[in-house]
Amino acid sequence: MQNQLLDQKQAWSDQLNQWVQETQHFGEKGNFVDYIPDLIDANRTDLGVTVMGMDGTTLHAGQWSTYFTLQSISKMITFILACLQRGLSTVMEFVDVEPTGDPFNSIIRLEANHQGKPFNPFINAGAITISSLLVGEHTEEKLESVIDFMELMIGRRPHINEKVYRSEEKIAFRNRALAYFLKETGYLEGEVETALDVYFRQCAIEVNTTELALIGLILSQDGYHPFTKKQLFEEKIAKIVKALMLTCGLYNASGKLAAFVGIPAKSGVSGGIVAAVPARNCKSKNPFPDGCGIGIYGPAIDSIGNSYAGTKLLQQLSREWELNIF
Ligand code: GLN
Question: Can 199 be counted among the known catalytic residues?
């Protein structure tokens, strides 16, 4: 019985390795964003993945242990934290939950919509608003609560990549423009520069794919941490986050995510993707019928800002293991 399980796990690992090899080359077509110069140090064709199940079964392939910065994936974490700290109704007064179809750093809808209310917490405008809502007057306090919350999820106090933080903070003129506009329309609390500083630093928090997979797993279990056996946040919040992941998680490629992958996922411009796969017993090819989390890293991104090879890998995984929720 034990041997059979080991054989099965090996077979899944082999599949994962094969799919990484098959999709890795897409990285050559990708690029890096020019406004965070330090991200350019990454290796274009790196591709790594971790898949983690409820019983702790963990499968890895490729450069799964490489550390990289969260970037936009942090938006999901601060949104949950703001809901925990301030309550969902207060948060909803400041951000909506509607997809935009625009690039993540677009400014155009801010003036057109409800006198400046950001469409959702996953575009930059909404995420900067959320950073401003975190409890604490100064950057340190707000950021400490983000790190504390991440520690509850991943079991380690993550560290901030100072170099990446500085390289973005120096030339983030568009994010500054968004933040000052939000202040003018009343959708940013406290000091503008504090909210921005928290935002740039949360984007520079480092994780690897195993930690992303664990975060995905917790979301797939509606906020319940299967290893520490603690409910970290309400089921209601987890469901909103997953809805946001599916409708806004890959920026203006989210429709394609829903159509061709069918798994709630969130990406960042450093090439990370986290996905939350719900429990589903009806599919025979799915190795994780009780749900799983997926963490992917592939640093070269497409023109929309999503990992080029990473999205291909996620699509293949979803297709082969029949993880599509629809
Ligand atoms: N730090 C990046 C920014 O604010 C994050 C964007 C992203 O990952 N899409 O532009």
Answer: yes
Residue 126 amino acid letter: G
Task: Determine the average pLDDT of the residues in 15-22.
Answer: 98
Active-site choice (20, 49, 72, 146): 72
pTM of the shown model: 0.96
**CA 132 / ligand 1 centre spacing (Å):** 16
Decide if 75 is catalytic.
Answer: yes
Q: What are phi and psi of 52, to 5 degrees?
A: -130, 130
Please identify, by atom number, the ligand 1 atom nearest to the C-alpha of residue 251.
Answer: 9
Residue 69 CB–ligand 1 contact under 6 Å = no
Convert the pLDDT of each residue in 262-303 to its tens digit.
999 999 999 999 999 999 866 678 899 999 999 999 999 999
User: In the predicted model, what is the mean pLDDT of residues 179-205?
Assistant: 97
Average pLDDT of the chain, as a whole number: 94
With a 6 A CB cut-off, is 131 part of the ligand 1 pocket?
no
In short, whether 175's Cβ falls inside 6 Å of ligand 1 is: yes
**pLDDT tens-place string over residues 94-126:** 999 999 888 888 887 777 766 789 999 999 999
What radius of gyration do the chain's Cα atoms show?
19
Active site residue 72: yes
Q: How far is CA 96 from the centre of its chain?
A: 18
* pLDDT category of residue 34 using cuts at 50, 70 and 90: confident
Torsional sign, CA 36, 63, 316, 283: negative
